[in-house]
């Protein structure tokens, strides 16, 4: 418990100190009219209060990732919690803040357009592909995961829940953002707080001993390599490219640029806290990593969530906690499809004021989602992890180029961009199932070399210092 409290303290300290430094590097301007004020359309560009935007952003980004990822990451040992803290402070809050603020400066543009401005047309098209693929995978993962948990909780068919969740996604994707999402999410946020705080306190009362941190760095029972798998396994809660697809949704609703730190960084820290709680539960609920591994092999992370919730909170509390866990992916899946609609609309030049144009995109989109949902959940999850972190790396490179153009300290984005680039390249080259099956040494060496080459290209491509007034659109 002391280890968890220490990690939480470091995370909050990072938000109040390093977060302010990152905000100063961007230089938000309260005098600028945001897209919500200039481009209001009653559908996607809708002015909302900061408190409501915060809850929507937190629920948008906090799907199954900050629960399932940290549970799986707990197999590696306490080092997983260190990655959540370090990744969230030096990668996650930077990534989320710039993805939101750069969207605001470009009329609420989706992330491929933001990337295209700073890295060129080819990068924009690459991001279009990755963002669309990622959002489809997220949407499907966040249908299958909650459907299985609801089926187990209610002893009904998972297929029935899959159909019901897809119907809800279709409605939430089509109608104005303030009709369902804007009204229901604050209530869902209350369930999220109950679930996270309730489980943490329940476990503290039942097992007050601190996490054992002495021993080998990698404790994985199956001896899977920590590098680079840990950084792919734990994405949401540390660094997640999915967030870059969600931040523009709230960039279209923000009233003032000065609120960006609270909205984008604050929601990222909130997700980091959720991830720390679940990772701590994974580390301490059983006596050994082998016991956790056995539960995961039999029923996956969902089985662990079910057992922990009912064991620590009883029947009534367990049901509420599981509903809170289920809400997280559902409230991310609906905005994943909504983001995908907006990205495709920008690429195709279809105005989204018209219901007909929204249906033209949503029809094929949900058909493809239904097809993907028939695939094996574990395979979809692994592809999601890699696509997620690749998207994060591209977004961080775009933010780095922005800062270099503005004559600011670009290293706050360049360093995490280089690290995540090495991670995703090493993973795809080394993976036997998803990649090329190279040795770990050669994969890492190529990852480092390609990351340095990309850095040189980005720094060479970015123009020399441009006054900040010329870098910003408005």
Give the averaged pLDDT, no decimals.
84
CATH topology: Amino acid/polyamine transporter I
Elements, N to C (H/E): HHHHHHHHHHHHHHHHHHH
Strand content: under 5%
Oligomer: single chain
- What is Rg? 21 Å
Overall shape: globular
Q: Going by CATH, what is the homologous superfamily?
A: Amino acid/polyamine transporter I
- Estimate nothing, just give the exact number of structural domains: 1
CATH architectural grouping: Up-down Bundle
Strand runs, count = 0
Number of helices: 19
Q: What's the main sheet like?
A: none
Structural class, by secondary structure, is mainly alpha
* N-to-C span: 48 Å
Helical residues, percent: over 70%
User: What are the segments in which pLDDT stays under 50 over at least 5 consecutive residues?
Assistant: 210-214, 464-474
CATH class: Mainly Alpha
């Amino acid at each position: 418990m002391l280890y968890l409290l220490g990690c939480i303290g470091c995370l909050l300290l990072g938000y109040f100190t390093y977060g302010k430094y990152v905000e100063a590097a961007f230089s938000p301007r309260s005098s600028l009219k945001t897209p919500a004020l200039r481009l209001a359309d009653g559908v996607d560009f809708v002015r909302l209060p900061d408190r409501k935007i915060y809850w929507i952003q937190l629920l948008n980004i906090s799907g199954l990732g900050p629960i399932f990822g940290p549970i799986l990451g707990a197999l590696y040992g306490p080092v997983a919690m260190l990655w959540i803290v370090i990744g969230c402070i030096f990668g996650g809050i930077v990534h989320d803040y710039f993805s939101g603020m750069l969207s605001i400066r470009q009329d609420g543009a989706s992330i491929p357009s933001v990337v295209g401005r700073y890295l060129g047309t080819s990068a924009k098209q690459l991001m279009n592909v990755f963002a669309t693929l990622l959002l489809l995978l997220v949407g499907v993962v966040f249908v299958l995961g909650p459907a299985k948990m609801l089926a187990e909780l209610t002893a009904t068919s998972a297929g029935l829940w899959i159909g019901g969740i897809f119907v809800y996604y279709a409605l939430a994707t089509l109608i104005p953002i303030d009709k369902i999402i804007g009204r229901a999410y604050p209530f869902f946020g209350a369930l999220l707080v109950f679930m996270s705080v309730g489980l943490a306190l329940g476990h503290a009362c039942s097992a007050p001993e601190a996490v054992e941190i002495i021993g080998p760095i990698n404790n994985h029972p199956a001896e899977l390599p920590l590098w680079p798998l840990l950084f792919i396994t734990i994405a949401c809660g540390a660094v997640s490219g999915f967030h870059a697809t969600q931040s523009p949704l709230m960039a279209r609703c923000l009233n003032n640029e000065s609120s960006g730190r609270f909205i984008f960084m604050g929601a990222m820290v909130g997700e980091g806290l959720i991830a720390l709680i679940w990772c701590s539960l994974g580390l301490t609920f059983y006596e050994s990593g082998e016991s956790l591994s056995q539960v995961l092999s039999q029923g996956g992370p969902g089985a662990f969530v079910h057992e922990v919730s009912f064991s620590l909170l009883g029947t009534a509390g367990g049901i509420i906690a599981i509903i809170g866990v289920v809400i997280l992916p559902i409230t991310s899946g609906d905005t994943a499809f909504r983001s995908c609609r907006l990205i495709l609309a920008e690429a195709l030049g279809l105005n989204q004021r018209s219901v007909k144009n929204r249906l033209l995109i949503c029809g094929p989109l949900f058909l493809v989602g239904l097809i993907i949902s028939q695939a094996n959940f574990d395979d979809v999850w692994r592809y999601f992890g890699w696509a997620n972190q690749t998207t994060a790396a591209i977004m961080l490179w775009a933010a780095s180029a922005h800062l270099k153009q503005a004559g600011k300290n670009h290293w706050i984005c360049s360093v995490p961009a280089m690290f995540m680039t090495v991670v995703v390249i090493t993973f795809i080259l080394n993976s036997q199932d998803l990649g090329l099956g190279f040795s770990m040494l050669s994969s890492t060496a190529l990852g480092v070399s390609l990351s340095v080459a990309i850095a040189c290209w980005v720094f060479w491509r970015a123009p020399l210092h441009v006054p900040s007034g010329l870098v910003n659109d408005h």
